[in-house]
Amino acid sequence: MRAAIIKKQLLFKIALACGYLPMSVGGLIFLIWWGAREFYALDLYKLERMGYDWALIALGILLIGLLLLVVFLVKKGKRGLGKSAVILVLLLLNYPVCRVLLGKRAELEQYAYVKVKNNTEQDHIALSIHPYFPGGNAVRLARGKGKVFRYTPEYTYTGDREYTVNTATLLVQTPNEKYRITLPPVKRDDCRRFYVDKDFILQNE
Question: What residue intervals traverse the membrane (predicted)?
């Protein structure tokens, strides 16, 4: 008797897991990938690929969940309607969650992420990127600290369906000096990491 109860509970728990596991794992992969770009200007390409692969795996899990839901309903009948509704809601919830994540991914690919670190001998410098960040909103960095700038690079049409990235300038200000450093081309959906050395020359990190 007890074994039969445990078996029925196991069926419900597995079906339940098939509902929340796909969106939970997919959401976690997305948040780690997004956080790496937003806070560290790191593009985890392998993690992004893993997210697409997981979407295919999740589809299989959802189909298994639907099958288990039918089995659960057949075995429990009207007594299982409440639990079946919970499973069905979780299974269906994966669709809007997936839509939101894909929409957010499409939005984020319009941005470039540029991290600049203060490796000068100045304890505090002010940084901004022209023309995307006004000088009045410059970020102040202590020595050894960095900042990720997120912006949408502008392009110029050069003909024959070709576009070039418009030049951006890193503005560096100390209490005594101002420096204008031309940034290398940074395309949309790119992540780049730089530091300003003691001679106020921009270096790849």
Answer: 12-34, 54-73, 85-102
